[in-house]
Amino acid sequence: MSLGETNISLPNEFNGLEDFSWFNKSVIVQIIKNISVPIYHQKSSAHSNPILQKFDREVNLICEGKIVCNAISEVIIYDSSVLDLILNKGVGIGQLFRYLNKLPSFNLQSVGRTATTWWREYTLKITSVECKIKEYFPNGMFENGWIELESNICNNEKGESKVWSIN
Q1: Is the pLDDT reported for residue 14 higher than 50?
Q2: Is the pLDDT of residue 16 over 70?
Q3: Ordered structural domains, the chain, with CATH
Q4: CB 124 within 8 A of CB 97
Q5: Three-class SS of residue 23?
Q6: pTM of the predicted model, to two decimals?
Q7: Which residues is 125 bridged to in the sheet?
Q8: For a tag on the chain, would you pick the N or C end, based on fewer CB atoms within 10 A?
């Protein structure tokens, strides 16, 4: 979902489906954290407009009672009309791009793997909003029967991680 095209070759440690996060079952979004962050520096070095608001956000995506993704994000708002949508009109941060009918640029920063999870870091940007996102997925989640296994977990473990930088 981007105007740009992303073509990468993942290392052999990733199977062919792990670069997709599509599910054919319903997914519940569990908000763990969604807080407004005080702004100490009004200007972003990478953006011409002042920062109006930052949000730290963490959500779990749950399918069939299992956490299939844990996502941690920083959302930066540069436009007062977008901030109004969030604070006063009830538009969720996760629905902003669709609501605004804007296709964000997508920039994959890095991917990595720990003993139980794999993850990716990326940014989504339009003129008025920037999202820095890190998503964690359980290993093997695209193998047949994975969802039925009791031992599978998804967490944002801080253990030893292999990292592949994309840029």
Answers
A1: yes
A2: no
A3: 28-165 (3.40.1410.10)
A4: yes
A5: coil
A6: 0.73
A7: 105, 130
A8: C
Residue with tokens 């299939």: 68
Residue located via tokens 């920037």: 130
Contact 44, 51 (CB under 8 A): yes
Distance CA 21, CA 13 (A): 17
- Retrieve residue 117's tokens: 């999870």
Burial of 96 (0-12, 13-18, 19+ CB in 10 A): buried
Mean pLDDT for 44-54 is 77
DSSP code of 43?
B
Contact predicate 117/154, CB 8 Å: yes
Please, how many CA atoms are within 13 Å of residue 45, restricted to the half-sphere of its CB? 0
pLDDT at residue number 5: 47
Distances (CA, A) of 150 to 26, 61, 115, 153: 19, 17, 17, 8
Partner residues linked to 69 by β-bridges: 61
- Cβ neighbors of 167 (< 8 A, separation 6 or more) are 107, 109, 110
Q: What's the Cα-to-Cα distance from 92 to each of 25, 63, 98, rounded to whole Å?
A: 22, 20, 10
What's the first-to-final CA gap in the chain, in angstroms? 19
